Amino acid sequence: MAGNRKNDERTAYEVRRRRMISIIAVILAILFLGWTIAGSVLTFADERSVSGADVKTQSIQADGTEMRGIWVSTVGSLDYPSRQTADADSLKAQADAVINDCYDMGMNAIFLQVRPAADAFYKSSYYPWSRYLTGTQGQAPDDGFDPLAYWVEKAHEKGIELHAWINPYRITTSSGDWARLSDNNPAKGAYNDYVVKYNGNYYFDPGEPAVRKLITDAAVEIVDNYDVDGIHFDDYFYPGSSFDDAKSYAAYGNGMDKAEWRRNNVNTLVREVNAAVHKADPHCVFGISPMGIWANSSTSSLGSDTNGGESYTDRYADSYTWVKNGWVDYIAPQIYWNIGYRIADYEKLAKWWSNVVEGTDVKLYIGMADYRANASSGVWAGTDELVRQLQLNASLPDVAGEIHFRYKSVAGSTALFQLYKNAYATNRVPAGTDPEETDNPVIPDDPSGLNDISGHWAESYIRALVSEGIVSGMGDGTFKPDRSVTRAEFVRMLASAAGVKDFSSYVDAGFSDVKSGDWYAGCVNWAVSEGIAQGTDISTFSPENSITRAEMALMICNYADKLGRQLENTSDDIDFADSSSIPSWAQSAVSRAVRGGILSGVAVTDDNGNEQRCFYPGNNATRAEAARVICALIGK
């Protein structure tokens, strides 16, 4: 009861505060009008028009303004630049377009990814220029252009904060990247002994003190040389439990439990970066956007009422401790699920994080999954779910704003662009809502409604795709995860994952077994036109045939190439006992899909009791396997 009374008091306080602000705003407006008529000479600076590149915007942390931030991803040319180029004019024009859009939507902070993977979107003495910028790692932009300096200048001119988003440990993002690293990359030079390969990619070992010093010094380099408003980490820490850090553990473990030792390594980095950033610039903030779940209640009594992946055990990231010890200025958990989602309910998590920051000096900004609003059906289709989440955020006193993932997902949608223009540019929550009357937001039903996937090994993959409208059930309450997936069903999944809804612009592929009225005709035409799929022969597509694992591998690689995702192009060293049975036309695709972590083999035991791995290229793929593959392709 005491807790309820406290919440009621805080809610009442918020209501009174908002009303008082409104009254003050009206009074000021009347005074301003009177002064204008009287001809008094008074100058009011537009709070969103700070002039001069050397003038930093007033800190959101300091003045209590709600965070209205957006992530701008540079890895894989997701948001900036739209294509890799060294041309300074093109890079400037693209930056201008993004910043102007953010201004028009009322965003007051941009989180620009300036170090996606042991590289830099700025002139650095520690890291080479990023290949995601110019196309070749180590190649600088033309004419001495420095993107970070330009972004800071132009964002500040609009009154928008610019936070430098860095990925601390990651060296590569896809198979084959190692060969693309420049000779002056620290991973190939002085820090080569601290590099660990994990699942085809490379990472700096968090257990090495030299790595912590590199990351800390490089963060300070940004603060010293650029007028950034903050240093920002995302959720990439230890990549997994089987990370091979035996060498550093032997040297520095000192008898600690390995999991605790790993968490202590990350904690030490967070603590050291926080201290170093504030020493370099007391006005620069440091924050992290961890996974949305710190720990499930089944792992810790302090954890949330959830059942999903958790940062505490999966990434060894103890975000709860960071908050309680004040090692960050803000925490921005990525709560990328809908309200009412059984495994990870947005409402439960938002309230859990609110309780965590309560009584601390750490701000809470919610990381929101705007990219999911591009779903064609389901709870995420349209803007309704995001509106419900904004309403819920506004009702929680300890939620100090949001950060949206990501720029193109928002700016590329007319509905989302207008939503935030209404919600932020006019300094109010979405039209037609009252933040004082949102104590009971609408909680939709479980998005799947499927009765045959509970406990299945692919349950989490299927639910993730159903919630985004990428896959659906069979119409009778079942998904039939172990049933073979047809060629038509799989290209439909790929089209949905790509966000393609209108197939009218794609020419008829001309297959005798695909008629214009068939439900799959449009996606088949799309897949063929885009070079993702082809017929089983010159005149037929065989849409109702089950897709084999070899056929799936080929479509996967073609789809990845279409998206610009780098999968290593090789047919060598396909390490399967049945490699000889993989058709020649599929060998490169199988290798690339396996090396890219999209497909995997099956462990079997031979007659002598020896374990070996087989790929089974001629076996039919199941609907469950297809769900896992799609999740891997789109990063779920």
What does this structure look like?
This protein has 636 residues and is α/β, with parallel strands linked by helices. It has two domains: 11-437, TIM Barrel, CATH 3.20.20.80; 459-634, no CATH class. Helix content is 38%, strand content 9%. The protein has helices at 2-38, 60-63, 88-104, 131-134, 147-157, 209-225, 246-252, 258-280, 311-314, 319-324, 346-357, 384-395, 407-411, 414-425, 459-467, 487-497, 521-529, 549-563, 584-595, 623-634; strands spanning 67-72, 109-115, 161-166, 195-198, 201-204, 230-233, 285-288, 330-331, 363-368, 399-404, 602-605, 611-614. The strands form three sheets. The chain has an eight-stranded parallel β-barrel, surrounded by five helices. The protein has a two-stranded antiparallel ribbon with strand order 4-5. The two termini are 40 Å apart. Residues 1-58 and 428-448 have low confidence and may be disordered.
Q: Brief overview, please?
A:
The protein has 636 residues and is of the alpha/beta class. The protein has helices at residues 2-38, 60-63, 88-104, 131-134, 147-157, 209-225, 246-252, 258-280, 311-314, 319-324, 346-357, 384-395, 407-411, 414-425, 459-467, 487-497, 521-529, 549-563, 584-595, 623-634, and strands at residues 67-72, 109-115, 161-166, 195-198, 201-204, 230-233, 285-288, 330-331, 363-368, 399-404, 602-605, 611-614. The chain folds into 2 domains: 11-437, Glycosidases (TIM Barrel, Alpha-Beta Barrel); 459-634, no CATH class.
